[in-house]
Design brief:
The chain is built from 13 helices and 13 strands. By secondary structure, it is α/β, with parallel strands linked by helices. The termini are far apart.
């Protein structure tokens, strides 16, 4: 079993797989003895994966002293450097995604690409669920709460309708919580990790992340909510945001999730065709930075709805043009529209559910403003699963342009 001394502490780590290098950063309470784990995932089938038990967890040291998120990031950096593993792609899940943010900010030269899964920025971007509030609950009650929190579809009515399935899920959570529970330092390390998690806040610094970044999560995650993920992605220049059918364990619930992560990791880092990268341009600058100035009020707001009319995604123009906010994610947006627009959208959604693939366009006057609207079916893997709603605020008749 490989152990390594870093920054005065002993850490347990594992390396497996073949391919380009990926550092995997684990969840709250993460322990590599738990199986299945990342080494049983599609990630290790396509990449060389390095993972370690973070301080306070698993088989690594559990000092009874304050831990910070900077400590966790510096531990990961020291591991990469000691094993001559950098630069590497970094995949951080849940708590590991918080550590990954700090790692990319504190040690940017060690990170080549970044995947932030079911996590949050803290601060003004919103925090993940305060798990420390569950720490003193009886073990079985804690497991029941965590099982329900991890997927918001498992509400009281669902639990009543699926008692055996819920009991099995709770038992799986209990197995994870029981592993090593009686080991020396286990309770101290777990408490210290949760204390560090409370202080996580990268939101005001995320603009400094310049590597390609994928932010991803589950539509039904009650721990790292879609709103928190959206705010996280919007704070990182050029970040891609994707949601999947699932909760906090979406990587295991939706087969497409690992596929998209692997596709992102496989992408090259060459500039896109036609872009000029000159020494005089600021680091991380993109021509997209001037789009607001060029487009002005003609910026296109894009939203994505599922077939029931629930908001799944909105781009950065949507809050200004359509008044879309993170709090609206997962809500039926019909209630946000005027009656005529609501009726039209409801009819189109019904037609798409019945197999229609037609695109719809129209102009919509609202007071002294006119909007151009386009609605088209969202077809993925040959299946209609929602619609893409694009709205452009047209210049008024008096505008002469630039």
């Amino acid at each position: 079993m490989p152990f390594i001394s870093l920054r005065g502490l002993d850490f347990y780590y594992e390396i497996a797989g073949r391919g380009s290098r990926v550092l995997f950063l684990n969840i709250t309470g993460g322990d590599l003895r738990l199986r299945p784990n990342v080494f049983d995932s599609p990630l290790a089938a396509r990449h060389a994966v390095l993972a370690h038990d973070q301080r306070g967890l698993g088989q690594s040291a559990k000092p009874d002293q304050p831990y910070t998120m900077a400590d966790y990031a510096d531990d990961a950096a020291a591991l990469l450097e000691a094993l001559d593993w950098a630069p590497a792609a970094v995949v951080g899940v849940s708590f590991g995604g918080m550590v990954a943010q700090e790692l990319a900010l504190r040690h940017p030269g060690l990170v080549s690409r970044l995947v932030l899964a079911c996590t949050s920025s803290g601060g003004a971007g919103g925090s993940s669920y305060p798990l420390h509030e569950l720490a003193l609950l009886p073990l079985e009650e804690k497991a029941r709460r965590l099982t329900a929190l991890s997927d918001t579809r498992r509400d009281v009515s669902w639990q009543a309708a699926h008692p055996n399935e819920f009991a099995a899920l709770v038992e799986q959570t209990l197995d994870r919580l029981r592993l090593g529970a009686d080991e020396p330092g286990r309770a101290v390390g777990a408490r210290r990790q949760l204390e560090a998690r409370i202080g996580h806040d990268t939101h005001g610094r995320l603009g400094a992340i310049a590597v390609p970044t994928l932010v991803c999560g589950g539509l039904f995650d009650g721990v790292a909510t879609p709103a928190a993920l959206t705010n996280l992605a919007m704070a990182i220049a050029g970040a891609r945001l994707e949601f999947f059918q699932g909760g906090h364990a979406f990587l295991d619930q939706d087969p497409r999730a690992w596929e998209r992560v692997l596709a992102f990791l496989a992408q090259g880092q060459e500039p896109a065709a036609g872009l000029v990268h000159a020494p005089g341009l600021p680091p991380g600058w993109s021509p997209e930075a001037i789009l607001p100035e060029i487009l002005g009020q003609a910026a296109v707001a894009v939203t994505v709805l599922d077939l029931e009319g629930r908001l799944l995604f909105f781009n950065h123009y949507a809050p200004k043009v359509l008044d879309r906010q993170p709090a609206y994610l997962g809500r039926d947006v019909g209630e946000l529209h005027q009656p005529a627009s609501r009726a039209k959208l409801t009819a189109i959604l019904a037609a798409y559910r019945d197999g229609e693939l037609r695109e719809h366009t129209w102009k919509l006057p609202r007071g002294d403003k006119t909007f151009a609207v386009r609605v088209a079916p969202l077809v993925l893997d040959g299946r209609t699963c929602g619609l893409v709603h694009a709205v452009m605020l047209l210049p008024s008749a008096g505008d002469t342009g630039r």
